[in-house]
Amino acid sequence: NNQQETPEFYVLDNMSAQHNNKQSGPNTHSHSQHHPPHHHHRGGSKRLSVDSSDGSVVKYATQPLTFPSFVSLLLDPTTNSWFKPDHCHVYHDMNQPLSHYYIATSHNTYLTGDQLMSDSSPFMYTRTLLMGCRCIELDVWDGPTGMPVVTHGYTATSKVLFSDVLTAIRESAFVASPYPVILSIETHASLLQQEIMATQLIEVFGSSLQYPPPQHRGGGHKLFCLDSVEFTPEFLKEKFLCILEPKMVSPGEAWGTHSSDAATPTSHAQKSKDNKPLCDINGKPINNKTNKQQQHNHTLLGKVSHKLAQCCYFRAGYIAESAMATTRLYGNIQQVCSYSESKIESFYDDRNVKENFVEGNKRVLSRVYPKGTRFKSSNYNPLKSWTMGCQLVALNYQTPDFPLRLNLTMFDDNGKAGYLLKPSCLTNENIPANEYGHQYSLSVEILSGHLLPTSADCSEEGPSSISPMVQCILNGVDTDNNQEATTGVAIGDAVRPLWSSRFRFTIDCLDLAILTLRVVDNPINNTFTTKTPLCEASISLKNLRLGYRCVPLHRLRDYAPIPHCALLCRFMLSRLEVPQVDLPAGLCRGTGYSQSAARVAAIHGLPPKYR
User: Fold this and answer.
1) How many CB atoms lie within 10 A of CB 267?
2) What pLDDT digit, counting tens, does each position of 480-521 carry?
3) Residue 436 phi/psi, 5° resolution?
4) Half-sphere exposure (Cβ direction) of 127: Cα atoms closer than 13 Å
5) Is 324 helix (H, G, I), strand (E, B) or coil?
6) Nearest to 233 by CA among 422, 370, 407
7) Based on C-alpha coordinates, what's the Rg of the chain?
8) Which long-range contacts (CB under 8 A, 24 or more apart) does 453-462 make?
9) Angle between helices 351-360 and 341-349 (to 10 degrees)
């Protein structure tokens, strides 16, 4: 009777009594390999209590487990979270080339709101970096006092000093993650202020500023190989890498020159709306020639400071999509290719271009940015870019809309390091881009809710009661998209709504699949009232723990967690086995594969990706 009680582990997977795999808290590791044997204690029923030392051990006390205590355990967002605890620290291989990773990327990081009239602030860099972002953007222009400034050019947005931005970046760069911070510097500045930019980069970042290898500085055409050990997140820890994206450089001009000579203008100069000649950064009029290539060359007549070029690890450029799969780009000066959201859409819709683009992204870095008409700083869906292997998918972090919420969910993985390994089919040149591996079947059972908000802003001024239902939305690769399901309506119950609705989804690419559970108010008494989204949670399926799990819900306006608000769900995931079918000779997938093979595969019930 005086024996010391043996600590035991408890898991809610499938509501079994198996005492194994106890995991809790965002920073605890799996104990699945260290479970003590199950002991039956004498003396009647026992009550579960969590060891206060690390929250990872559940002991048995002498009191019986009451139903309220059991419910509290089920809805504990720490002990019974849907997120795998061992994914709360870095577990990906961080010694691969940077082109093998998705990198959390921000667009126009300095803006606090819209693209036309909002304020610019150094604080936005602090905020974005603390959110786990690893690639930030600086648009640099000539300042009126002779010091370079960061602002959105040709708009009414305010200006902040380039040096203040660098200081804010330095102070918060490696708080959330130790892995390298990439500065995408789009410079519109004159040569004189480019020299000042370089001096400030060196003074503020000091030894943390990563230069290209000595033999590759100064803008020469021989750049280092992307597969070099010097090009990995692990090697570049706590380093600042700069992408130089000059907007005033002629395609044929050399980098790192001090010359400000420009072509002699003709009498036909382009005019602005107020009938004044349009000038380049050197103050020389831009010619209006009939030859489009000549006009393009004359429009971009600026040079890049040699000193600034030496500070930049990358160079931005453009690679024709048709050449990406066939040209060895190692050693090419254009290492980071920038594409607009609209360009990516056109790639996505063209099968041949898409395949070439994916193959090219296995070797070089691609940066995607929002189209220019997103004046309100709205975001595009990043999944299309991710499925094509783009590493730097830039979003407006100041706008917590649905695309940004998908992005934040994606980068919660790998300890929020800001770097995620892409699926092997998007990094290995020997694997076709659409070979995602095994297909899975996901079963989702929405059981109940707990303390749901009655308004979208979670204020106390909302209606006294709501009739909630849950929308299940799956986002991922082409074949995983457009899968949705909805529970029934729990009439007038926001405190403990019950649904017990079960749905099944087919998953082709688990690494890129994100399931969103959105709670919606559906006032069924008024057919003219639209459904009001109240809160939601997005779940990255590669991080999902199976069994009965607590899913904490978040506000829509800023994606902050709502205290004590959660769904209780049951998740089950099984791998779909592909039937072994002996196809006729010549119809196997690969060389000689034809539409007839697809028809045979369809007849035998093979999944779409085998057709």
Assistant:
1) 6
2) 988 999 999 998 888 899 999 999 999 999 999 999 999 999
3) -85, -5
4) 15
5) coil
6) 422
7) 28
8) 453/494, 453/534, 453/535, 453/555, 453/562, 453/565, 454/494, 454/521, 454/534, 455/534, 456/532, 456/533, 456/534, 456/535, 456/555, 456/556, 456/557, 457/555, 457/557, 458/535, 458/555, 458/562
9) 120
| Each residue's pLDDT tens digit, 524-551 | 655 556 788 999 999 999 999 999 999 9
- Predicted confidence at residue 328, as pLDDT, reads 44
Q: Is 224 exposed, middle or buried (0-12, 13-18, 19+ CB in 10 A)?
A: middle
Tokens in use for 460? 């106390």
Counting DSSP H helices and E strands in the chain, the numbers are: 11, 21
**In percent, how much of the chain has pLDDT > 70?**
67
DSSP state of 292: H
3-state secondary structure 390-401: CCEEEECCCCCC
Assess whether pLDDT exceeds 50 at residue 5: no
Would you state the structure tokens that stand for residue 518, as one six-digit string? 């959105």
Mean pLDDT of 282-300: 40
- Separation of alpha carbons 514 and 83, rounded Å: 13
Place of tokens 């200081």: 167
SS3 387: helix
| Residues in CB range of 453: below 8 A, 6 or more apart | 462, 494, 534, 535, 555, 562, 565
Could you say which of 87, 100, 107, 306 is catalytic?
107
**What DSSP element (H or E) covers 520?**
strand 514-521
In the predicted model, is pLDDT for residue 293 greater than 80?
no
Asked if 9 contacts 35 with a C-beta cutoff of 8 angstroms, the reply is: yes
Q: Above 90 in pLDDT, residue 69?
A: no
Active site residue 107: yes
With tokens 């069924």, the residue in question is: 524
pLDDT of residue 3: 39
Close Cβ partners of 594 (under 8 Å, ≥ 6 residues apart): 587
Kindly name the residue from 87, 152, 306, 554 that is annotated as catalytic: 152
